[in-house]
Amino acid sequence: MRPTFFRYATVYVALTAMLFLAFRSYDDDFIKRLLEQFRAYSEFHPAEKVYVHTDRDAYLTGETIWMKGYLFNGTTHEVDTVSQVLYVDLVDPVARRVRLRAQLRATNSYAPGQLTLPDSLAAGTYEIRAYTNYMRNYSEAYFFRKTLTILRPDGVLSAANVASAGGTVARPDVQFLPEGGQLVAGIESRVAFKAVNASGRSMSVEGFVLSAKKDTIAGFSSKHLGMGYFSFKPEADQTYTAFVKLSDATTASYPLPAVQAQGVVMQVDNLSHKDNIKVYVSINKNNTAETAALTLLAQTRGQAIQAAKIPLSKKSALIQLPRSQFPEGISQLTLFDETNKPICERLVFVNKDEQITVALAPNKTTYKNREKVDLTITTTNADGKPVPANLSLAAVDARLAPEPDSNGATITSHLLLSSDLTGTIEQPDYYVNPSHPDRWALLDLVLMTHGWRRFTWSDVLSGKASPIKYTAERGLSLTGRVVRPNQKDIGGKVKLTFLMAKRDSSRLFLSGETDEAGNFGAYDLDFTDTTSVLIQGIKGAANRNLTITLDQMLTPTVSVTRVPYNPLEFSGDALAEFIRRTKEYQEIEQQIRRNGEVLLQAVTVKAKKEKEFDSRVIYGTPDASVKFTPMNTSGRMTILDVIQGQIAGVQVMGTGMNASVQIRGASNFRGAVEPLFVLDGMPMDLQGIMGVSVQDVDRVDVLKGASAAIYGSRAAGGVISILTKRGGPNYDFTKDVTPGTLVAKLPGYAPVREFYAPQYDTKKPEHIRPDYRTTLFWAPLIQTDAQGKATISFFTSDAKTSLRLQAEGATISGMPGVGRATVKVN
Q: Gene Ontology cellular component (predicted)?
C-alpha cells in the first residue's frame, strides 16, 4: 500500500558553477534519472519523527513518569497529524525486554500520558523507547530513545566496571573513518576518529600512526568527547596502523582502512564561509574517457537540493553549494563515479536560526513555602518576533531531582541531529546551544564520525521500493491472520465476527472477512484501557480447524548494541535525600488511599438498582419480546423457527434456511415490506441472521409501527432485534473456549491522568500533610497565543530549595525550542 499522506517538498535542482572550472549547465540523463527515482522513492517512503519530553530523568519505583510525545513530519519537520497512536516502551536493556508499554492517543500530533512504575521493578538504567506503527517499516535505530534511572527505596547505584578481569586495562573501541569514505594513494586525506570505553562513554585518547615500514606518519589526540582527526597522504601498496596509548603505558593497535591505488577523495569545508559549503574533490584515476564525469547530489531528509557534474579529466575541483538553498538540519552529500555508483559521502549541518526562544519569567525570584508562582511563558523566533507554539513544562525540586546532563537531549537537538543519525550522540544539546562558540567545529566532527542510513542508493537507483508493511494509524488497529492449525494457508476468504467488551460495559460488534491469504484488519478503533475481544471465524463446516492470531501480540524486538550508561551523577547525600523524601511522600499517599477505602466500606448506600445500560439497545420497551431458552430452542435450526407463532402479528413463512418473515401491517403499494434485522445493534441482512446459532441468542425484540421509527425509513417494515448472549453487558466471553475462536485482551489508549498539584490558596483537609514532592508541577499542553504568550500558576512545596523549570516544544511549522529557569524557595 502506497502511503500518500505526507507532504513532499518541491525538488529544487541547481547545477552549481565550479570554481577554477568553466562549467556549463548540464542536461544530463543520469541526473534526470537520479532525481526522478529519488523523488519517487522519497514519496513512497516518507518518514516520521517522534520526541518524548519527561518531567525528569530519575524516579523511585511506585512513582509516575509524566510525559508528552511530539510527532513530526520527517521531511519538513512540520507538525504531523497522520499517525494518531504513539507507542511508548520502558525497555530493560540488560534483559533486552520491554517492562512496560503504553499506547498514547496523539491529537494534533501531541500525545500526553504517563507510565506508573511498579514496586516490583528492579533498580537500574532503563530506556524510554517511542515510535509510531509506521516507523516500524524502518530501522529501530530511528526510534526515539531516552535513558532513565530507576531506584528502589533500598537500592543503590553501582559504578560501571570499565576494567576487564585480571586487572588489565580494557581496550577502548576506536573507529578510524576517512573523510568521504576512502583513502586513495597520493591524495591528502583527513581521517576522523571516535573513541569510547567499555561502558559506551566517550574517552580522551592520543596516539600515533605508523606505516608498514615503521615510519611515524602522524600523531593525534582527541579534541572533544573522544573525537578528533588527523591528515596524511597515503602511499600506494602501503598499510597503516594507529596506536592508542593506554593508561597503563601500553598501546592498543588499530589497522587503518586499506589504501586504494586509484579513486576519488571528497573533503568538505562547512566552516570558513558563511554563505557557501565548499566541496573539494580530488581525483586519481587513469585511462578514463574524456566525457566521463562524477555526479554530486546534495539532499536533506528526502529533498533533493542541488546536483552537479564534475569532469574526470580534471584532477581537482571545488564546488560551492549556497546555504540559502538548504533547509535547516543535516544534509547528505553523495558523490557518484562515472559508472553511476556512490563512492563518497559526507554529512553537513546547515544552520538557519530556525529555532524558537522560550523565555520563562516567574513573577518573583524568591518564594516562601506553599506560595503561588505565576509564570509567564514567551515564545519568539530568531528575529525576536512572537510565534505561537505548543509546549510542555516541568517544575521539579532541584535538590531531590538529580541534575541531568546540562547538554543532554532536548527537542531541538533530537529533531535537528539525533533523529537523523545512527549511533549515540553524547551531549547532543551542546551542538545547538548558542552559548558554545565552538559548537559548529565540534559538530562537524560528530558528522564525520556518524552515519546516515535511512536508505541505500542501490534501492533508490533500482526503482524497487520495499513494501510498506506497517501503515500509519489514525486510530487503534486490530490486525491478524487466520490459518490452519498446521500454519498452512486457509485457502480462501474466511468470514469473521468481532465482539469487543469495553471497560464501560459497552460492546462493539464488527463483521467482515479475510483476504485470500487469511489476513484481516479492523482500523481506526477508539477504546481506552484494556479491552476484551472475541474473534470467531466461519468457513463452511471447517471453522473448527481455524487458528486465529493477532499482530498486537507482537512488538518490535529489543536490540541493544551497548547498555546505556547512567547520565546522572548522585552524591551520597543527594541520593539518600531523594529516596527518603520520595518514600515518605509515597507512604503518605498510600495511607490516604487506605483511609479512603475504610470510609467507603463503612458507608451503606440504599437506593433502587438502575437497569443495566445496554449499548446495543437504542429503543425503549419493545412491542414484543421472546426469551430464548433450552425449551423453545430445542430442535430449532434458525432464529425464525424459534419465534414462529410466538409473537402476535409476526408471520413466518417456510422453515429452515428458506424461511422469511413479515410483520403484519408493514406494506406499501408495491406489496409486503421486509423488516429491518439488527444483530447486537448492527443492521444485518436476513442471510446473516440465519447463520446465527439459536444457542447463542439471549432474546429477540420486535418493534412495530411508531416504535420502529427510531431506526428511520429503513425500518418501514418494522424491526426484529436479535440480542446475543455474548453481546450482553454482563457476559464474560473471555471464558469461552470454542474451536475457531480467539479470546484476547487488547491494550487500548492509556487513560490520561491529570497531574495533581495542590492549590494552597484554598484550605482543604488534605493540606495538613507534609509536601515534599519531587515534581511539583507538570503541564503537558501549554499553547502560547498569537503574541507568543501563555501564563501558568502552581504552588511551592514545604522544602526550602531551588526549583528547576524546563519547557520544551515546537511551532506548527516545526521550529523547536527549549526554555529554562530557576527560582528559590526560602
A: cell outer membrane
SS3 656: helix
Fold for domain 356-398+772-826? Immunoglobulin-like (2.60.40)
Classify 234 as helix, strand or coil.
Answer: coil
List alpha helices for 639-709, DSSP H: 639-643, 686-690
**In this structure, CATH architecture of domain 624-726:** Beta Complex (2.170)
Of 69, 54, 44, the C-alpha closest to 131 is 69
The single residue listed with the C-alpha cell 555508483 is 341
Beta carbons of 421 and 415 less than 8 angstroms apart: no
Q: pTM for this structure?
A: 0.80
Q: 582: which 3 cell numbers?
A: 520520595
**592 — pLDDT class (breaks 50, 70, 90):** low
Residues 454-502 have pLDDT tens digits of 778 888 888 877 788 888 999 998 889 998 887 788 778 888 888 887 7
CB burial string 538-557: b at 16+ within 10 A, e below: bbeeebeebbbbbbbeeebe
What burial letters (b/e) apply to 770-790, b meaning 16+ CB within 10 Å? ebbbbbbbbbbebebeeebeb
The alpha-carbon radius of gyration of the chain (Å, integer) is 33
Three-state SS at 323: helix
Three-state helix/strand/coil letters over 726-760:
CCCCCCCHHHCCCCCEEEEEECCECCCCCCCCCCC
For residue range 135-162, what is the model confidence (pLDDT) as tens digits?
Answer: 999 888 899 999 999 998 875 544 432 3
Q: Is 467 exposed, middle or buried (0-12, 13-18, 19+ CB in 10 A)?
A: exposed
Q: How far is CA 733 from CA 507, 531, 692, 696, in A?
A: 11, 12, 16, 11
Nearest to 65 by CA among 156, 130, 10: 130
DSSP string computed for 173-224 = EEEEEEGGG-EETTS-EEEEEEEE-TTS-B---EEEEEETT--EEEEEE-SB
Grid cell of 76 as nine digits: 519538513
Q: How far, in Å, CA of 297 to CA of 277, rounded?
A: 13
- Indicate the domain borders of the chain: 356-398+772-826, 476-557, 624-726
Closest alpha carbon to 69 in 84, 56, 47, 57:
84
Distances (CA, A) of 122 to 118, 156, 428, 581, 599: 9, 11, 28, 20, 34
For residue 680, the one-letter residue type is D
Cα-based angle 730, 736, 737 (whole degrees, multiple of 5):
175
Report the DSSP pairing between strands 64-73 and 357-362: unpaired
| pLDDT (tens digit per residue) in 531-562 | 888 888 877 654 557 888 888 656 677 765 55
How far is Cα 126 from Cα 786, in angstroms, rounded to an integer? 39
513: nearest Cα among 669, 708, 691, 362 = 691
φ/ψ of 47, rounded to 5, equals -125, 150
Beta bridge partners of 260: 184
| 3-class SS of residue 135 | helix
- CA gap 677, 721 in Å, rounded: 6
Say what the pLDDT of residue 176 is: 97
Residue 585, H or E segment:
helix 572-602
The alpha carbon torsion through 536, 539, 545, 548 (nearest 10 deg) reads: -40
* DSSP-derived secondary structure letter, 257: P
What count of other Cβ atoms lies within 10 Å of the Cβ of residue 798? Answer: 13
Alpha helices in 635-711 (DSSP H): 639-643, 686-690
Q: Are 810 and 412 in contact (CB under 8 A)?
A: no
Do the strands 719-724 and 676-679 form a parallel or antiparallel pair, or are they unpaired? Answer: parallel
What is the C-alpha to C-alpha distance for residues 263 and 312, in angstroms, rounded to an integer? 11
